[in-house]
């Protein structure tokens, strides 16, 4: 009971907690002055590590990822204990925000069938990629970001930034992905029905690389949920805290986030809380 009061901290909060739980303040303070138990000492030491992990990841991690990071560092600890310690320390992960949609389906280009049908699993790398584009606010105006993500590991395999949202932006992400991955023929390339992806130039590039085109149904965000989920993560973990940087600085921030943090460090729930690169290396 006194442990619950201790978690409140502050004289006013402690007084209210004592009253609510029906115990005296003098009894609490006698307990607080007594020697800490072995469990208390362990909690204090573990809380230091939890704060360190939370800080290292810039406040992005909630209890599931903090728990897995603790386990990776050799700490045998339950998820409930991590939740309790984070609550006591006032730590929490960032909550998702909605990102700005960019899809323009007002075109007469040919639309491809949906080959994925919301099955976002892949048994190997370079079996299927999903892509999308979004707006990024800066102090100089908008930047536009295009990405391609491998469904096997959820790794961002290609991305591009531009001050214009056009076919060249989409192609920039595609060319990076092909250069980095050298995928085999028949890879499924899935996006929404945006005019940039349906354009003659983009479709010609997909044909040249031997890729099969797949597109979401009209106005159905769930058909491209993996790409949309990535943008929601980018928004809550980077853009929500680093808003209105100049374009040049935002380009550096996004590059560092995708290449170094998201792909190489961040624990992803889909791949058993490993990073995408770590998951691919373990599978190779």
What does this structure look like?
This protein is an alpha/beta fold. It has 2 domains: 2-89, no CATH class; 128-283, Nucleotidyltransferase, domain 5. It has helices spanning 2-8, 11-21, 25-33, 38-56, 63-72, 79-89, 167-181, 195-198, 200-208, 225-239, 247-262, 276-283, and strands at residues 128-138, 141-150, 155-162, 188-191, 212-215. It has a 5-stranded mixed beta sheet, with helices on both faces. Helix 1 runs antiparallel to helix 2 (11-21). It starts with a helix and ends with a helix. The mean pLDDT is 86.
Short note summarizing the structure:
The protein has helices spanning 2-8, 11-21, 25-33, 38-56, 63-72, 79-89, 167-181, 195-198, 200-208, 225-239, 247-262, 276-283, and strands at 128-138, 141-150, 155-162, 188-191, 212-215.
Shape: elongated
CATH architecture of the largest domain: 2-Layer Sandwich
How many independent structural domains? 2
Q: Specify the CATH class of the largest domain.
A: Alpha Beta
Query: Mean of residue pLDDT?
Result: 86
């Amino acid at each position: 009971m006194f442990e619950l009061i201790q978690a409140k901290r502050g004289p006013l909060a402690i007084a209210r907690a004592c009253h609510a739980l029906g115990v005296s303040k003098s009894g609490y303070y006698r307990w607080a002055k007594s020697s800490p138990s072995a469990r208390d000492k362990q909690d204090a030491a573990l809380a230091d590590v939890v704060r360190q992990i939370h800080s290292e990841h810039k406040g992005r991690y909630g209890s599931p990822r903090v728990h897995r990071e603790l386990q990776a560092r050799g700490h045998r600890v339950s998820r409930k204990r991590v939740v309790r310690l984070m609550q006591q320390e006032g730590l929490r992960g960032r909550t998702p925000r909605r990102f700005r949609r960019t899809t323009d389906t007002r075109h007469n280009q040919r639309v491809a069938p949906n080959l994925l049908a919301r099955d976002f699993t892949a048994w190997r790398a370079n079996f299927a990629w999903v892509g999308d584009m979004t707006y990024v606010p800066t102090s100089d105006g908008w930047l536009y970001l295009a990405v391609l993500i491998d469904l096997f590991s959820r790794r961002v395999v290609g991305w591009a930034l531009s001050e214009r949202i056009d076919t060249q932006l989409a192609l920039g992400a595609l060319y990076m992905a092909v250069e980095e991955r050298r995928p085999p023929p028949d890879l499924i390339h899935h996006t929404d029905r945006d005019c940039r992806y349906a354009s003659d130039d983009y479709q010609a590039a997909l044909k040249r690389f031997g890729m099969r085109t797949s597109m979401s149904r009209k106005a159905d965000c769930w058909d491209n949920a993996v790409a949309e989920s990535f943008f929601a993560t980018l928004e809550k973990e980077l853009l929500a805290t680093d808003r209105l940087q100049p374009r040049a600085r935002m380009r550096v921030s996004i590059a560092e986030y995708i290449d170094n943090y998201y792909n190489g460090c961040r624990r992803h729930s889909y791949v058993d809380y490993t990073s995408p690169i770590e998951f691919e290396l373990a599978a190779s």
